[in-house]
Amino acid sequence: MEPIIYDTSDGQQLRINMISSWLKRHYEELGLTSPAKIVKLSLDGGFTCPNRDGSKGTGGCLFCSESGSGDMASKTAAEQIALLSGKWPADKYDLKYIAYFQNHTNTYAPADELRVKFEAALKTADVVGLAVATRPDCISEEVLDLLTELNAKTFLWVELGLQTIHDETARAMNLCHDLADYDDAVRRLTGRGIRVVTHLILGLPGETREMMLASVRHACRQRIFGLKLHMLNVVRGSGLEHAMPDYVPFDSMEEYIDLLISALEIIPPEITLHRISGDAPRSTLIAPAWSYKKRTILNSIHKEMRLRNTWQGRLCT
Ligand code: SF4
After folding, report:
1. For a pocket test of ligand 1, which of 44, 52, 101 has the largest count of ligand atoms closer than 8 A to its C-beta?
2. What is the pLDDT of residues 203-249, one digit of tens each?
3. What is the CA(32)–ligand 1 centre distance, in A?
4. 173 CA to centre of ligand 1 in angstroms
5. Is 0.90 topped by the overall pTM?
6. Cα separation of 254 and 233, whole Å?
7. Which of 110, 158, 159, 224 is placed for a possible disulfide with 197 were both Cys, Cβ 3.0 to 4.6 Å?
C-alpha cells in the first residue's frame, strides 16, 4: 500500500493531516488569498465555566489550569497579533488569522454577549475565521442559532472537550459532563452544518491503551472535522496536583509516541489533526517532565512514522 503524504510543501513529507496545512490549502483553493501562513490567535473572552462557578460543579476538571487551559491568551485579537509579530513578522509572511476563543467555556454567556465578542474578533484586519472551545453540555438553542448564523458568514469550528468516552474516568476527573452530552452536542452542531473538533486527552488516570483508542474510535465514527489529541499534563494549580501529586501519565516520551501513532493509524484521512502534543508552559508543568519539548516530540513523531512506514488512516477500513 502506498503511504498517504498529506503535505509536501517546503520539503515536508507529512503523514498526518495537520490543520495548519489543511487551512493553507483551503484558503488557496477558495481563491480568497494566497497566504503563507494561517495563525491561530488564542483569545480569552472573559468567560467562566459552569464547572467552576457551581452551576455544574466547583473546582473544575482536575487537569484544568487556573487560566482555564489558555495560558498564553490575549483579551483581543489585535493584542495577540501584536504579541505574535516577533514570531510571524507581517513583512515576511502573508498572514491571515483564526480567532480562537480558548479559555474556559466560550459559549457560557447569553448569545447577545457572545455575538459582541465573536463579531469584534472577526472585524479585526486579516481575521478570516473563528474557533470556539466549549463544553458539550453548554450549547443552548439560542447559542446554536448564533453559531449557525456565524457559520454561514465565516469559517467556523466548535471545539468540544470530550477528553474520554469512559464515564467512570469523567466522574473521577470531575468533568461534570458525560458521553451522552457529547453525542448530543455533536448531533446538534453537525445537524446545522457546523464543523466540530473533538478534544481528547491521552493518559488520564485508570485508562488503558485500549480505552484511549476506544475514545478515538468513537469520536471518528461521527462526522467530525477535527481531533485534538495530547498527553495529560499535570500542572501547578490544578486539582490533579493536589489529588494525585505523584501521577505521571506516561513512563517515557517513546511510550506516548507509540500510542499516538496507533491512534493516528485508525483516524480517517479526512479528519484534521489540531494538536498531537501538549503545550503546557514549562513554568507550570509538573508531569510528564518532557512534555514541554514540543518541537522534539513533533519531530520524533514524524520521524517514527517514516521509520515504520505508516500514516494517518493506514488501518481505516
Ligand atoms: S477544562 Fe474546561 S470545562 Fe473543565 S474546568 Fe476547565 S474550563 Fe471548565
Report:
1. 52
2. 999 999 999 999 999 999 999 999 999 999 999 999 999 999 999 99
3. 35
4. 11
5. yes
6. 16
7. 159
Best mutation site among 51, 56, 139, 159 for ligand 1 pocket (most ligand atoms within 8 Å of CB): 51
What's the CATH class of domain 9-307?
alpha beta
Q: What digits encode the pLDDT tens for the residues 258-280?
A: 999 999 999 999 999 999 998 88
CB 268: neighbour CB atoms within 10 A? 13
Atom of ligand 1 nearest to the CA of 177: 3
Mean pLDDT across 132-157: 98
User: What whole-number distance in Å separates Cα of residue 293 and Cα of residue 312?
Assistant: 23
Q: Which residues contact 157 (CB under 8 A, 6 or more apart)?
A: 129, 130, 131, 132, 194, 195, 196, 197, 225, 226
**Boundaries of every domain in the chain:** 9-307
User: Ligand 1: distance of its center to the CA of 177 in Å?
Assistant: 11
Ligand 1: centre distance to CA 275 (Å):
18
Cell reading at 245 = 501529586
Q: Looking at the predicted structure, is the pLDDT value of residue 71 above 80?
A: no
pLDDT of residue 69 exceeding 90: no
What is the predicted pLDDT for the residue at 30? 76
